Amino acid sequence: MISRDDVAHLAQLARIELEASEIDHLAGQLEVILGAVARVQEVAGADVAPTSHPLPLKNVFRPDVIRPSLTPEEALSGAPASEEQRFRVPQILGEE
Amino acid sequence: MITQNASEMAAAVAAGEITSEALTQAHLSRIAEVDEKVHAFLHVDAEGALAQARAVDVARAKGEKLSPLAGVPLALKDVMVQKGVPTTCGSKILEGWRPPYDATVVTKLKNAGVVILGKTNMDEFAMGSSTENSAYGPTHNPWDLTRIPGGSGGGSSASLAAFEAPLAIGTDTGGSIRQPAAVTGTVGVKPTYGGVSRYGLVAFSSSLDQAGPCARTVLDAALLHEIIGGHDIYDSTSIDAPVPPVVTAAKMRNVKGLRIGVVRELGGEGYQAGVLQRFNESVEVLRGLGAEIIEVSCPHFEYALPAYYLIAPSECSSNLARFDAMRFGLRVGDDRARSAEEVMNLTREAGFGPEVKRRIILGTYALSSGYYDAYYGSAQKVRTLIINDFNAAFAQVDVLISPTSPTTAFKIGEKADDPLAMYLNDIATIPVNLAGNCAMSIPCGLAPEDGLPVGLQIIAPAMADDRLYRVGGALEAAFNEAWGGPLMNKAPSLTGGVR
C-alpha cells in the first residue's frame, strides 16, 4: 500500500516540489504499477545471483594523457548564473 | 532523389552526379514542406548542415577518399549532444541549452562526412513508447497522421518514413529504436551493449541505454552501424573489439542452414492478429530460404517487463539527479533568498513532465531502504534469469525472432494516461536490453486489418550483430521481390501529389 504521505516523502527525497493534485494522481498510479512489477519476487530466489550490468567490467583504466578539454567559458556556457569563472548557486548553508 | 536509399545517395555524390549540398537542400525543402504535419524535428540546423555538405563537396573535388556515406543527410535524436546545437531531450528542463561538446557518435558522423540535418523529437529523456511524452508536442506517424510513430525515438523513425532524412540515430533503452522502426515500416538496430559509445548520450538508464542506426534499408543501417560503432576511451563501458562485419553480412542474402528460433513466449495472447499473421508468414519465408526453424522457450521473459520497470526507473532516479538547476538548464525561483535545495525542488517540478516524475518517484521508492531487496534486488535477479534463458536459447539456435511490437501504431492519446498499457508496447524488446545483446526490427508487411506496418524482430548474441544483418538482409530481399519493391513505396506522400 502506497499512501499520499509516502509519495510526498519520496518527492522530497527526489527533490521535486510536487503539487497536491500530482501527489493524489501519482499515489493511485504507483499503487497499480508497483502491484504489477512486484511479480519479480515470484522467481527471485536466494539461489539466484543478481546482475547489475550486462558487461562484467572492473576497474577500466586508460593512460593518463593530457588532452584538450573545455575552457572555463565553454564549461560555464550553459550555466543559469555564473560569476568570476564559477557557477553561481543559491545559498547552500544557513546563516549560522 | 529523396526516396533513394542512403547508399545510392552516397554513390551519386561520389560519382559527381549530385552535390551533397543539393542533396541536403532537397531534404531541407522536404522538411519545410511536410514537418508541420509530422513534427519529427525539434530543431533544424539548415546552416550547419549545408556547411557540412559543402565541406564534403570540396573534399570530393580535391579527390580525397570519401567514406561510404559521405554527403548523405542524417537526423539525430535530441538525446545526443552536438556542439552548439540545441539539445533538449524533449524536456523543458533543457530548453535552450547548447552543449559545449560533441558526442563521440557525432564526432564519428562528422569525420565520415555524414550531414546532420537537425535534432529529432522524442519522449522526454527517452521515457515512453509514443513520443507523446515530449514537452514539445507529439510526432505524427507518416503512415497515418492521427497515430503515434512509436517511442521514444518517434522523431527519428518518422523522419525516415516521411523521407525527411534517409538515415537517423536512435537510442534504445527498452525498445526505443526497434518499436518506432516497427510502427513506421523502417529498419532499426539496437547494437550489442557497449558496441556504440554512450559518451555524449544523455543518460537515462546507464546499464540499458544503447545508441544505434535507423534507416529505410538493412544495408543503409549496416553502413551507419559501421561508422558509429567501435571502442571509445571516453566510455569505460564500450567494448574494446572490432565492429562485427555488419556490412558484409547485410550483402550476403543467404540464410541457408542458419538455425532460427521462434520464441514461444513472444507471441499469442496480447498480440494483434495481423501482427501475428505477418510474423508467421515471415517464418515461412525464412524456412523457404533454407533456414532451420526451431521453437524455443524462454520461460523468464514474462518477468522482463516488471524487472525493467524497476531497474530503468531506479537508474533514472539517480541519473536525472544531475538536473539540479546549478550548472546547466532551467533554474526556477532563484530570488537570492531561497536555498539551493528549494530552487532545485521548484526547478525539477517545473522542468520535468509527468512520466519523468513518475519514473523518478518509482525509482526512488524501489531503491529506498526497506524496499531495495524486494524490488530493485529482485529485479536484478530476474536479469540473471533472462540472461540464462538467452544463453540456453543460443546454445540451440543462431538467432531468435519475434514480432517487434504486439500491435501496429495506435491512435495519439489512446494510452496517454494509462502507464501500464503504454509499458506493454515494449514487452518483446525489453529482454534484449536487460541481457545486453543485440536486435533489429525490419518491416514484414502491412497488417490486413488496418494497413499499418508490422515489424519483425531478430535477436542475436552479444557481439554477433552481423547475424542480425545477415537475416535482415536476406528477408528484406525476399520481401522486396514478393512485394514488387520496398514497403516504403506504399507510404502516403504527405503532400497530396506524387512524392
UniProtKB/TrEMBL annotation, chain A:
<dbReference type="InterPro" id="IPR003837">
    <property type="entry name" value="GatC"/>
</dbReference>
<dbReference type="GO" id="GO:0070681">
    <property type="term" value="P:glutaminyl-tRNAGln biosynthesis via transamidation"/>
</dbReference>
<protein>
    <submittedName>
        <fullName>Unannotated protein</fullName>
    </submittedName>
</protein>
<feature type="region of interest" description="Disordered">
    <location>
        <begin position="71"/>
        <end position="96"/>
    </location>
</feature>
<dbReference type="Pfam" id="PF02686">
    <property type="entry name" value="GatC"/>
</dbReference>
<dbReference type="InterPro" id="IPR036113">
    <property type="entry name" value="Asp/Glu-ADT_sf_sub_c"/>
</dbReference>
<dbReference type="GO" id="GO:0006450">
    <property type="term" value="P:regulation of translational fidelity"/>
</dbReference>
